[in-house]
C-alpha cells in the first residue's frame, strides 16, 4: 500500500479500519478480560493463594487475544490460531518448574484468548459468552474435586527391623502413625540393611495436599 499523505500513514488508506473494528476489538477484549478475571481472581486465587502467576496468566491471555484478532483478517485464520496455541501451550519457563495445575490454567487462558479472538461475532455475543462460561464452569467444577485426598508417601529410614516381617505389618503401621502423626495406611519396604539393622521404607498416607514433590525432593534412596 502506498501512503499519499500523513493522514493515510497514521490512520490507513482505502483499506483502513473503521469505527466498527475498534468497537469489535473493545468488545472482544472486554469479554476476554472479564472471563480471565473471573477465572484467575475468583476461581484460581481463593483456592491456591499464589499471586506469582497473576501477571503471566493475564499477559499470556491478553497478548494471545490481540495477536489472534490482528491476524484474523489474514489468510492464516484458524490455522494460525492453532499454531499459536501449540507454541504457547508447550512454552516452559527455565527459571522455575511450573506446577501442573498452573500449566492447566495457562492452557485455559490461551484457549480463552483464541476463542475470543477468532470466533466470528456473526454468531452473536451471547454465543461467545456461552462458550467462555462453559469453560469457566468446567474449571470451577473440576476445582471442587480438589477436596479429594491425595495418596502421598514419605521415605523413611526405619530402625525397628523386627517389625518388617509381613506378619507384623500392622504393628509397623501403628508404630509409624504414632511417630509421624500421619494417617499411614500402607508401607512398602524398599531396601533392608542387616548390617546396620535398618530398613528403607515408603510410608503411604492420605492428605488434602499433594506432598509428593516435597517428599521426593529430599527422599531419594541413598546407596
How does this model look, in words?
This protein is α+β, with helices and mostly antiparallel strands. It has eight helices and three strands. The chain has helices spanning 6-11, 19-48, 54-71, 77-89, 100-118, 125-144, 169-180, 212-217, and strands at 150-158, 184-193, 198-207. Strand 2 and strand 3 (198-207) form a beta hairpin.
Largest sheet: 3 strands, antiparallel
Counting DSSP H or I runs of 4 or more residues, the number of helices is 8
Portion in strands? 5-15%
Outline: elongated
- What is the H-and-E element order? HHHHHHEHEEH
Integer-rounded radius of gyration: 27 Å
Count the E strands: 3
Average of pLDDT: 78
Major β-sheet strand ordering: 1-3-2
Helix share, percent: 55-70%
Termini separation comes to 71 Å
Low-pLDDT stretches are 213-220
Give a brief rundown of this model:
The chain is of the alpha+beta class and 223 residues long. The chain has helices at residues 6-11, 19-48, 54-71, 77-89, 100-118, 125-144, 169-180, 212-217; strands spanning 150-158, 184-193, 198-207.
Which features characterize this protein?
three-stranded antiparallel beta sheet, alpha+beta, 8 helices, 56% helix, elongated, 223 residues
Which helices and strands appear, and what pairs or packs with what?
Layout: H1 6-11, H2 19-48, H3 54-71, H4 77-89, H5 100-118, H6 125-144, E1 150-158, H7 169-180, E2 184-193, E3 198-207, H8 212-217
Antiparallel strand pairs: 1-3, 2-3
Amino acid at each position: 500500500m502506498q501512503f499519499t499523505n500523513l493522514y493515510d500513514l497514521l490512520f490507513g488508506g482505502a483499506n483502513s479500519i473503521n469505527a466498527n473494528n475498534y468497537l469489535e476489538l473493545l468488545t472482544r477484549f472486554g469479554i476476554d478480560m472479564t472471563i480471565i478475571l473471573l477465572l484467575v481472581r475468583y476461581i484460581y486465587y481463593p483456592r491456591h493463594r499464589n499471586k506469582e502467576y497473576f501477571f503471566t496468566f493475564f499477559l499470556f491471555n491478553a497478548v494471545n487475544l490481540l495477536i489472534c484478532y490482528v491476524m484474523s483478517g489474514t489468510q492464516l485464520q484458524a490455522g494460525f490460531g492453532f499454531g499459536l496455541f501449540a507454541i504457547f501451550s508447550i512454552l516452559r519457563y527455565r527459571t522455575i518448574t511450573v506446577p501442573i495445575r498452573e500449566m492447566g490454567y495457562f492452557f485455559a487462558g490461551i484457549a480463552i484468548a483464541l476463542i475470543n479472538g477468532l470466533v466470528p461475532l456473526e454468531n452473536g455475543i451471547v454465543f461467545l459468552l456461552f462458550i467462555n462460561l462453559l469453560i469457566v464452569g468446567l474449571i470451577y467444577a473440576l476445582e471442587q474435586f480438589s477436596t479429594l485426598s491425595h495418596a502421598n508417601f514419605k521415605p523413611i529410614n526405619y530402625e525397628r527391623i523386627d517389625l518388617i516381617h509381613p506378619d507384623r505389618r500392622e504393628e509397623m503401621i501403628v508404630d509409624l502413625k504414632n511417630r509421624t502423626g500421619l494417617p499411614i495406611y500402607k508401607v512398602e519396604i524398599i531396601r533392608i540393611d542387616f548390617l546396620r539393622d535398618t530398613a528403607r521404607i515408603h510410608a503411604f498416607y492420605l492428605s488434602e495436599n499433594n506432598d509428593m514433590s516435597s517428599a521426593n525432593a529430599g527422599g531419594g534412596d541413598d546407596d
